[in-house]
Amino acid sequence: MINRKMETLLNEQINLEMYSANAYWAMCSWLLEKDLDGFANYFKVQAKEELFHAEKQFDYLHDVGGKVTIKAIEQPSSAFGSVLEIFETALEHEKSVTKSIGNLIKAAFEENDFATHTFLQWFVTEQVEEEATVSQIVSKLKMIGDNSSALYLLNAELAQRKFNVATGGAE
């Protein structure tokens, strides 16, 4: 059975994952308003991934005898100046999620909660992938600069991204 401290921290992480989904929906919406459907698709898939993460944590907390406490989700920003700004914002957000997962792992270790420590390893791997992917897109966008043809090609590439329900990740 999970202790109260870990239960509280996991509930905070569930809330953060749900905030992440909302932030990515806001980014998706801004991009759709600009007719950048491929970039919007990237964030639509991201939102689905974040909800998958929240559900995975929700289920785990119940599996170990914890209580899930759903809290109000803070409203994310929906004002952006460019595609690059959106992806830079997403990268900074993913870094904050990585830090939060790291704090959870540290707490699980300190609490001798080896089950939770093991459970969280999947999220460590996931965050490495998340940060690397967004970082690569930021690099590409910086390389592209004002080249609308290159932006169009990257937009088309990101339109192919799909959410894999079986793995909870993108393809």
UniProtKB/TrEMBL annotation:
Fe cation binds at residues 17, 50, 53, 94, 127. The keyword Metal-binding applies. SUPFAM superfamilies: Ferritin-like. It is found in: Cytoplasm. GO terms for molecular function: ferric iron binding; ferrous iron binding; ferroxidase activity; identical protein binding. It comes from the Bacteria. It catalyses: 4 Fe(2+) + O2 + 6 H2O = 4 iron(III) oxide-hydroxide + 12 H(+). Pfam families: Ferritin. Residues 1-145 form the Ferritin-like diiron domain. One of its GO terms (cellular component) is cytosol. Keywords: Cytoplasm, Iron, Iron storage, Metal-binding, Oxidoreductase. It is an enzyme of class 1 (oxidoreductase). InterPro entries: Ferritin, Ferritin-like, Ferritin-like_diiron, Ferritin-like_SF, Ferritin_DPS_dom, Ferritin_prok. GO terms for biological process: intracellular iron ion homeostasis; iron ion transport. Its EC number is 1.16.3.2. Belongs to the ferritin family. Prokaryotic subfamily. PANTHER family: BACTERIAL NON-HEME FERRITIN (PTHR11431:SF127), FERRITIN (PTHR11431). May alleviate iron toxicity in the presence of oxygen. Iron-storage protein. This is Ferritin. It comes from Pedobacter nutrimenti.
